[in-house]
Write a structure and sequence with these properties.
Layout lengths: L1 E2 L2 E2 L5 H9 L16 H18 L4 H11 L7 H8 L2
Antiparallel strand pairs: 1-2
């Protein structure tokens, strides 16, 4: 299934939580996603996920699976790392 010319991906509460945590610097632009506005930003999400996957030479479904399975397992966030750099 395609939406906006791009293959559909999962954007459920689990992936939204990963995006909102800001763990992955490449995904910071997707932090505004929430369970309440995901429909409005879904095509943007697809485009950004495809852009990141292509730029890093892997399939977008590999990125999707990684975020779904392992996305919440990292301990540090971009925000916490930048705060520690200011010390």
């Amino acid at each position: 299934m395609e939406i906006g010319g791009l293959p559909a991906l999962i954007l459920d509460s689990r992936i939204i939580e990963v995006l909102q945590k800001g763990v992955y610097e490449e995904l910071i632009g997707l932090r505004q996603k929430s369970t309440f506005n995901k429909a409005r930003y879904y095509v943007d999400y697809l485009a950004e996920m495809h852009r990141i996957a292509e730029a890093n030479a892997y399939c977008v479904d590999q990125l999707e699976l990684f975020l779904f399975q392992y996305g919440n397992n990292l301990k540090t966030t971009v925000a916490s790392r930048s705060n520690s750099w200011d010390l």
